[in-house]
Design brief:
Layout (H helix, E strand, L loop, with lengths): L1 H24 L11 H7 L1 E8 L1 H6 L2 H6 L4 E5 L5 H13 L3 E8 L22 H10 L6 H10 L2 H5 L1 H9 L2 E2 L2 E2 L8 H5 L11 H16 L3 E5 L5 H4 L2 H16 L3 E3 L1 H4 L18 H14 L5
Parallel strand pairs: 1-2, 1-3, 3-6, 6-7
Antiparallel strand pairs: 4-5
Length: 301
């Protein structure tokens, strides 16, 4: 019984330590990193901010953008959807970050995703108040396990191995984008991969897109949406095309500029070696796409 009481007491102390110390200060470890929210907040401003999913992380080359005179920063989170994108913009503005041009990932599948914390690494990039706001994004279905995960257990292993973890991870990034992508695969391998299954569009994502538009209008931020190339099978898939039609119609109705991947480079999706899976660009595809984006879009704005 005594051991049980000691164990419970130790767990409570550990939880209090995490909430008071870890949750308030871990984000400061990334103030000078090559990725994440703290670096951008510490920087204070950015001319061209790209916010999106892993499609942006794998699809945009920060070095090429810089070489072409584009001042940029990339914030990308696995499975990012409009709900989280809207929150990120609001969080940056509350932390006094000045944004001139904002480019959002026109990722059609995100309309059917309701998970606001699909990538736990963002929990390490925000303060205690930010974690509480993210916790509330979970809605009515959140429970104690969600609370414990967000405020206590998530990213503890990274902190415990920080002297090793941070230098390795940070070395792979530049201005929020990865330095080296993955190799492409041949058409036969690409054709054997499964296409994402159909799912219902979530109204909260529609509401979040409208909120992003409202926030940008109120803060004089130029807003555009950009679709990264997907493999030919995805581009021709009826479900994907249907989601894209819904997404782009919302943007049209609100007079928001958007660029389809074919507006930027119509040939990338035709070469399997430009992809390492059905929706992510390979290192080769990433360089070609970023060059095209810079020449055909960014340098003309």
């Amino acid at each position: 019984m005594k051991k049980l009481i000691i164990t419970i007491f130790a767990a409570i102390l550990f939880s209090i330590f995490c909430i008071i110390i870890k949750d308030n200060y871990e984000n400061k470890l990334l103030n000078h990193a090559e990725y994440g929210l703290p670096r951008l907040i510490n920087q204070g401003q950015v001319e061209n901010l790209f916010i999106g999913s892993s499609m942006f992380r794998q699809g945009l080359d920060s070095k090429i953008l810089e070489e072409n005179g584009i001042d940029s920063y990339i914030l990308s989170y696995n499975g990012n959807n409009p709900i989280l994108e809207s929150w990120i913009i609001d969080y940056l503005l509350k932390n006094n970050v000045k944004i001139k041009n904002l480019y959002i990932d026109l990722y059609a599948y995100s309309l059917a995703d309701l998970s606001p914390i699909s990538d736990s690494k963002i929990l390490m990039e925000v303060n205690l108040k930010g974690k509480y706001e993210l916790y509330n994004l979970l809605g009515d279905n959140k429970d104690f396990s969600d609370f414990y995960s967000i405020f206590v257990s998530k990213n503890v292993e990274q902190l415990l191995t920080w002297p090793i973890y941070y230098p390795i991870v940070n070395a792979t990034y530049y201005q929020g984008g990865i330095k080296i992508g993955k190799n492409g695969i041949d058409k036969n391998k690409l054709d054997n991969l499964n296409i994402i299954e159909e799912s219902t569009i979530k109204d909260k994502n529609i509401e979040a897109i409208l909120n992003i538009i409202k926030i940008c209008q109120e803060n004089n931020i130029s807003l555009s949406y950009i679709e990264t190339p997907k493999s030919g099978r995805i581009m021709e898939d009826h479900y994907y095309q249907g989601l894209m039609a819904i997404y782009t119609n919302i943007l049209k109705e609100n007079n928001i500029t958007y660029y389809l991947s074919t507006d930027i480079n119509e040939n990338i999706s035709k070469n399997s070696y430009n992809f390492f899976d059905l929706i992510h660009l390979s290192n080769q595809g990433r360089k070609e796409y970023t060059e095209s984006l810079t020449i055909n879009i960014l340098n003309k704005i």
